[in-house]
Structures are given as structure tokens and as C-alpha cells.
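pasting for ref
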Amino acid sequence: MTSREIIQKALRRQQPPRLPVLMPSLGVDDRAVLPIKTPVNFAPARPGTDEWGCVWDTTAVPNMGQVIEHPLADMRRLDSCPTPDYRDASRYRDVDTALRQAEAAGKYRCGFLFMVLFERMHSLHGFENTLMDLYADRPAMEALADRIVEVQLTFVNEVARRYPGRLDGWCMTDDWGTQQNAFISYELWMDFFHPRYKRIFDAMHEAGCDVWVHSCGRVNDLIEGYIQAGVDIVNLQQPRVLGIEEIGRRYRGRMAFESLADIQTTLPTGDKQKIATDVEALMTHWADAAGGFVFSDYGDDEAIGVTDSSVKTFMYDAFSQWSEKIYGNPLPPRKSS
């Protein structure tokens, strides 16, 4: 069975022959993400400026950085704010080759949409401004959100037009929580964000794609909103913050999960007993024999304080043992540490 089929069976709870795994750092990855790039003629006005006009900077520790200048701090500039042109053919210059390679290898093919809605709103308008104006200036926030949704729909539909039937899923990011709770109430989220997410996710489903969403923080209640909007799998990398048993009790069987040993409270400690405990809890409460779970990497060891490579190989081997126990087969052989 191909990697693509294994992921699809896990997401649809159709008894995959093993646990799907996304661990490129250890040489094993069932998924291929398309290399969709910025257009060749994109020329930022100043270093660190993205296609939306947001200015980014990084810290001393290598990472994705953060927005330091928000082009729509003044919402009167909305109509003049730049947006990405997803119809530019040069953006897709490497995609066909990558697709052919992924298809030949039997990989699950996925597009990637960075900052799908809420994160893009506050990168443009500022985090505090966005939270306040959801209450103080709702019409302005609706105009901003709808502008973003239209751009993202153009992206999704353009990829579907160019590569019909060749993409299996869309992955995206939108962090929604602190260590204690979501940034806004569930009621406001459902009223404001749910219908806009649903428009995007419906377009992805219409193109034959699964919907993968990443969200950090204690977003326990918002997962219900994601389900209602059509999310097929949610990436949660702080399972201890959420409560592994609680999330399993509320949502197992209703959507799939993508996760690993907790990147905040477990992996940085290097404590292998804690890692084994996390793996057992995840495979007991989030996965089952029908599927519903994908094991993945965080992707930035330095950022989470993992300096010993044996930590990840131990975690990989622990998940492999559980894969064999539940599905009958271990994970593919990994690279040595």
C-alpha cells in the first residue's frame, strides 16, 4: 500500500496497515508538500516584507520570525494594501516536476497555505488591534477577513485549475490559543470565523482535498468549530496543554489528529519515560484500530530546545512499537541518530 493510501485510510478511519508518519528529519515522510513559491518578479519594498506588505524580523535563534510592521494598522488603507497574485504562472514553476516525483513515489500530495485567516488578520492589523476591533469595529474586521478569504479562495481554485485531481490535501496554520484558553469566545468564533473558514474548506473539499489545520494553544472548544467547518485533521503539538484524555473523549472518531510527544512539556526535557508516556496516551486516547492519527515532526528542534538527536529517534521507535501493536506493522526504517 502506498503512503498516499495509508494517510487516506487513517483520515477516513478505514484501518490503515500502519501509522502514517511525517518525519523528514529522520528520512521518513508519507506526504509531499508542493513547492509553490513567490513570483519571480516579486520585489519587496524593503527587506523582510512579504507579499501582503507585512514586515518581518527574526530573533537571535533561527526561526520563522514575527511581524514588526503591520500595513493595516490604519484600516483606511485596506483598499491600497497589496495581496498575493496567485494567478502568476511563475509561482508554480517547480510544481509539475515535484508532483510527478511525488506521484511516482506514491506520496500523499499536499498544498500549504500559511496564515489562512486569523493569523493573517493580525499580521496585517496588529494582534491587539484585531482582538479589540472584533468588538469595537466589526464592519472593518469583516471587510479585512472577507478580503483575505477571497485571496485564499483564489489560491485554492487556481491550484485546482492547474492540477485537477492531483492534490490530496491542503495544510494550513492559524494559532488560536494561549496556555489557558482560546483568544476569543467560542460563540464569537462561530459567529465571525466559522462561516469564513467554511467557505475556504468547502472549496478545498470541492477540489477533492482533505483539510489539515494546525493550531497551537488550549483550543479545546474551538476544535468543535473546526469540525463544524469541515476540518478533516487537526495538528496539535501541545497535547498536554489540551489534556490528552479530554480531547480523546470529546473528539476521537469525529476527526483525525496529527501530533507527537508534547513539544513544550515533554520533548525538551529529554526524559524518555515522559516521552513513552505521551506516546502511549496519544495512541490510547486519540488513535484506535480504525485510524484517526498521524505521527508528525515539529520541524525545528532548536526552537523547542531539543539538542539530543536520540530524543526524536526514541520517540519514533516508541510510535513504531505502537503502530505494530495496533495496526500490525511498524513504521518504516528511519535514519540513525
